Amino acid sequence: FNAVGTSVDITKWLSSSYEKEFPHTPVFIAEYHSPDDPHKEEDLTGILALAEASPLLLGVNFFEFQSRYDRRGQAGWGMFDPALPLGDDMLGADGFGTETGP
Fold first, then answer.
1. What Å distances lie between residue 30 and 37, 63, 83, 93, CA to CA?
2. Burial status of residue 41 (CB atoms within 10 A of its CB: 0-12, 13-18, 19 or more)
3. CA–CA separation, 71 vs 17, rounded Å?
4. Cα 57 to Cα 70: distance, rounded to the nearest angstrom
5. What is the pLDDT of residues 6-30, one digit of tens each?
6. Cut 0.70: pTM above it
7. 53: which DSSP letter?
8. Which runs of E-coded beta strand occur in 21-99?
């Protein structure tokens, strides 16, 4: 399914609704994103931790990997922004937890 929300939102939904209604049905989030969230690294860490801890959440595909400028209103959605110098994108200079960058 597609999800527009933070890892906190998904955690609440998974524990309060989905696990009760579908306790034996795994789920994969095909389009996971929280548009214009200034804390993308924290959010990605949270959703990956949830996927690791939950027996039902198989994983996520982050949407969009790269910020888009060809569609109005989607410039702030991506993890990486080609319009910014390397390291100044949404995940910062450390490349999401690495010492050498992306």
1. 19, 8, 26, 27
2. middle
3. 34
4. 32
5. 889 889 989 889 999 999 999 999 9
6. no
7. H
8. 27-33, 57-62
- Measured distance CA(49)–CA(9) in Å, rounded: 14
Distance from C-alpha of 19 to C-alpha of 68, rounded to nearest angstrom: 34
CA gap 92, 80 in Å, rounded: 9
Joined together, the tokens standing for residue 69 give: 């400028």
DSSP for residue 80: B
Note whether 62 and 33 are within 8 A (CB).
yes
With b for 16 or more beta-carbon neighbours within 10 A and e for fewer, the 16-38 pattern comes to eebbeeeeeeebebeebbbeebe
DSSP state of 5: S
Structure tokens given for 79: 């993890």
* 33 touches 4 (CB < 8 A): yes
